[in-house]
Amino acid sequence: xMMNYKRFYDRISTPLRSYAKVLEGLNKIIxxxxxxxxxxxxxxxxxxxxxxxxxxxxxxxxxxxxxxSLGRSLYNRPRPYQTWAIQPLIKKDSLGKSFPSxxxxxxxxxxxxxxxxxxWLGGAMLFLAGALALLRVLGGVHYPSDVLAGYVIGILxxxxxxx
Length: 163
Hints:
Its EC number is 3.1.3.27. This is Phosphatidylglycerophosphatase B. It is a single chain. The protein is mainly α. It has one domain. It has helices at about 5-15, 20-75, 80-85, 100-115, 120-140, 145-160.
């Protein structure tokens, strides 16, 4: 964590204050896009690989989600707005469970699934997962290390889909 996160956050968020609604809207749109595409990708996996491949995919992704959620509950890192006197651009009421970012993990592992189905689609979705990570930091709901960890863990769990 930075010595003075408030100064860092004020520097990156001040130019965006008048666009807070846009940031919040983009955060919702990107998040919902991933969650809407996920069942479509699972159907695609079923049609391409059958029930065994689908169940393996769900087990890997679900297991990763469970372990990540367990780890973040045990670690229970406070969110930036809990620790520092900052005004987040994205409204969030929850306390703790900041590290690692589950939003970014989920988006990244779904993007990795898309990558197994279509490289161009997967690449575009990995880019969107990175954009979501940036939005979560700019929005004040995560530290950079939270989203970086979520992204890296999402890639690592996603690589298991290739085994």
